[in-house]
Amino acid sequence: MSFLIAFFLTFVLAGLGTSTLFGILRLLGLYTTVDECRAKVYVLFGKVIGVLDDPGLRFPIVEMGPRAALVSFFGKVHELDQRLDQKYLRSLPVNTEEGTPMGIGVWYEMRVSNPVAFLFENMDPAGSLQANVANATVRCLSNMPLDNMLTSRHGMSRLVRTEVSPRSESWGYRLGSIYIRKVHFRDLHMIQQIEHKVVNRLRQVTFAIRQAGANQVDVIGSAAEKEAAVEFARAEAVRPRLVGQALAEISKDREVLAALMEILETQRLVEGKADITLVPEGGASLLPQLLAARPADPPASGSSKKSI
């Protein structure tokens, strides 16, 4: 039991002693660790004595001398983040050459390239860089033609980056990409007018397309009716000729022609609505006159009686 207690106390004391020892060594500047994309600036009595920006295990007392042991007591260690940062500025106000109020959205990247300049050249380097980008955007892109502002975003981005980069280097920043992401109208009344014009134009185009389709249908229909009328007229012209040829062929035989005429006349009489009275051939001349003068019989009733 005493062995387990001794082992436990030894383990705890060894852990605490090791942590304390490494803490004292780090406090005296004998070693330190630098993370990836990080930088440590050592300042002693208001002066920069060294900068560690390479990741890994570093030994300040070897690189900076005995002064590194005094930084923990009479100086300060600034740890900076050198990772890539991004920012977006929304609706920066500019005016076109025609006087149209526009809004510009600018997206840009930056990272700390000079830790010493970042700490001591400017009190607020991030805010100054933002203000510089905004001012350069307004200054460089104002009074541009509206067509160029709406179509040439790459050229506008290069123009703003050329204007901002030299100034940002003096503040310890390295400016990355700058891109004009959005160009829009700021006047609500103008936006409504543009929407109204677009809607009217779409209506006009739709009506023109519909009217062109209707005209095309009418042209096709007229052409079809014309062709049909020509064919009907041609058929009407051919029919009398065919009938005449048939009659001429029939008229060669007088008996056949007389029989045909009699059949046609009988057909016309049958198809007509007039009453027909058959008179015996060779009868007295008075009988036909009496039959013709007799009034028409009333319509027969539903039932009829047969006489004997």
Please describe what this structure looks like.
The protein is of the alpha+beta class and 308 residues long. Among the domains are: 21-81, no CATH class; 85-186, Tetrahydropterin Synthase, Chain A, CATH 3.30.479. It contains 10 helices and 8 strands. The radius of gyration is 56 Å and the shape is rod-shaped. Residues 302-308 have low confidence and may be disordered.
Summarize the structure.
This protein has 308 residues and is an alpha+beta fold. The protein is 56% helix and 20% strand. Strands 3-2-5 form a three-stranded antiparallel sheet.
Give the class-level CATH name of the domain at 85-186. Alpha Beta
> Assembly type of the shown chains?
single chain
Q: Strand count, sense and closure of the main sheet?
A: 3 strands, antiparallel
CATH architecture of the domain at 85-186: 2-Layer Sandwich
Strand sequence of the main sheet, in spatial order? 3-2-5
- Poorly predicted spans: 302-308
CATH topology grouping of the domain at 85-186: Tetrahydropterin Synthase, Chain A
Overall SS class: alpha+beta
Helical segment count: 10
Question: Averaged pLDDT, please?
Answer: 79
